[in-house]
Known about the structure:
Beta-Lactamase; ATP hydrolysis activity; ATP-binding; T2SS_E_N_sf; ATP binding; 4 domains
Amino acid sequence: MERDNQNSIANSNSLESVNELPTQGLSVTPDTSGSMTEQAPVQVEQVKTASSTHTGNISKKQERFLAFLLSKNLLTTEQWQTLTTEISGPEAKDLELLLVKGEYIKGENLTKAKAEFLNLPYVNLGEIEIKEDILNNISSEVAENYKVICFDKQAKRLSIGLVDPENYHAIEAIDFLAIKNSLQVEYYLISSASFANAFRQYQKFNKEVAGALKQKEEEERLEINEGESDDSSFEDIVRNAPVAKIVNEIIKHAVDSGASDVHIEPMEKDTRVRYRVDGILQATLTLPKNIHDSVIARIKVMSKLKLDETRVPQGGRIRLLVDGKDIDFRVSVMPLMGEEKVVMRVLDTTKGVLTLDQLGFTGSGREVIETNIKKTVGILLITGPTGSGKSTTLYSILNSLNADGVNIVTLEDPVEYFVHGVNQSQIRPEIGFTFASGLRSLLRQDPDVMMVGEIRDAETAELAIHAALTGHLVLSTLHTNDAIGAVPRLLDMGIEPFLLGSVLNVVVAQRLARRLCPYCRKAMNQNDKIVTDLAAQIAAIKIEIVKKSWPEYDPAKPLNIYEPVGCLRCGHSGYKSRVCINEVLDIEDHVKEAIINKHGVITEEDVKANQPFLNVNEDGLIKVCQGITSLQEIMRVMNE
């Protein structure tokens, strides 16, 4: 949010000097389209009169709020009845927590609804960069204590976002400071997530690390000046505050950035920290070379690895609570030429499992998957390169199969998400617990559905086939570039064609492409040759198949193709999050015949002649035409 900042109040009598807050500013809230709209000012008295949240037996306020949500079609009648019953129980219950945890309403939508219910304006600060001088009208201590953020200033009026409009202590403090500084305040309701994102702007990542580095340098200089002997243990050194703070900031910033992996690697003159975000590895931080060993050692301590072992690779795990979320870090330490590199895989175990539709499966492909997972026997395979989202798709399928009457058992390496009601086991090859040995044990666990993280060798493949033949539904992954390639791959492992043809149900191949940022994407000229060529490629696909995936498709209308631009909301990359582009091969009678009688010789032309099949590239092009991703991104993904 770009604003002129007039008459800054950062002086000796300002709020900052006594941890104060001011009051007044132009009311700005984003509407549903993302544009900014003015709203009437909201006075302190209005905030004070908002009735308080009540826990325990249902209060009149809770009744009214539930009725309000029902009237706005944010709850169904059944959900309203369920919540009313639950909140009326003998134990104290937080209605808002129930709404979010039960996934009745997403957090930001709940805050919007609450703001309307309380007659307060709403703003989402999560993706707004607040000017430092405006932010500092409230000290970080006050902001953290009262969960308030100053996000805008116009003349003598400040705009304040607050999480809890019924926190009278916060409002009284603001009232006092506003009067003292001859200011006016305008209040906006913000979500806890919005506050957390805005609060992070007080302490930028590089500033935090720079502060820790400076502290370490000062400590080392002090030791040299005092002539102390270096008799402290290495464990003491790596546990010291500056090194611990640097590692903590690297980890915290990785989670905040949505990184899937963190790379800490020695360079010739320094140490480079890189994050993989949305599949792209990007440099984030440079550290002095002299602290590299201490940082690596600190991570070893946290993951319970051997500090004195630097000759062989080591692997461990760290589990931390970051911003209220349980995060797992799978740590891999690799010895290089004289030094070690660390890669940490970031696994957010609190993330909900997405549906196939949310992942990007549409049309005939999704229908084929949904039909085949209803079968009680057979094998479903997900194929694709490392990092293509295979495990995420398997979790989505597992979640849809999860029910009280179904015994689901998994073998994973590692367990990336915890699914309630599913029996999940992690293999440990170092003690002989492999996919193959684990599969033998799973068969004695009376399973209905078995998920094997990966078919890596002939033994695992044979056991998976055997499990499917004996009345189980088996889900697994395989490393092939396309769905058709899974058949010759399994035959090469020694599986008999007649066995494979009888148990294989469906093969999915997939990649992950970055989604275009909806806030800054730019439409291309409809007369551009790229656009007209793309229209011709889509027109070459059977129209009924295209319309299955994209019901709005009309070959008579020009295509709206978008390209990335970059803005604050997407970190100036032009992309935000990812979508699955995929192909789904239904192992129907014609394919089974080819497996059994033609030794797995299957062509895409034969498949398309007998089923509504889209290959990965075609599915990607359709998503380009839908404005989900860009042509450049599909070309990048397909060329990897």
